[in-house]
Design a protein that fits this description.
This protein starts with a strand and ends with a strand. A hairpin with a 4-residue loop joins β1 (about 1-10) and β2 (about 15-20). It has helices at about 70-75, 75-90, 120-135, and strands at about 1-10, 15-20, 35-50, 55-65, 145-150, 160-165. It is of the alpha+beta class and about 170 residues long. It has 3 helices and 6 strands. The chain has a 6-stranded antiparallel sheet. Mean pLDDT is about 80; it is low at about 15-35.
Amino acid sequence: MSIVVICAISLLNNNETSGQNSSEAGGPVAASNQSQIVLSKVATANTIITNKTVFVGGFDTDYSITGTPTNIKYSEDLIISSIVEDFTKSPTVGYVMVSKSMSNSSDMTGITNPFASNEQINQKIQGLLSKSIDESTNSDTDLVEVQCSFGNSLDVFSCSSYPLVR
């Protein structure tokens, strides 16, 4: 089973937030107004059922932030909090594996918990987004896109910024 969710949220300069959900496939909405930022999301997941047992398969959530470097930097806190809140409310967040370089404390049986805590997930997302937003402000273009991908392990979380041509 595969689930695809596409969501676009416009973050306007006057701190108004409006949301729009869509089940139609397509690319990110271009920021046509210089004073707005477009935040879009595509989420996929699969579930495996074997011998009347259900397993969570792979999953990915991709976010795209499009706008001017100045507007993205100005709205950094709102962008980060929106993405953190959205991702941590997803049903797959409890299945994100901890990085190999990190370790979670073991329970009373001495077995190490393989799953990342919400705090670890939040810190990873905040760090990656902050770095990419800072990089986007160094762009000489009028329009940039910050792309983030969060999967089933903290090791594969990533964000990058790209200049866009109108």
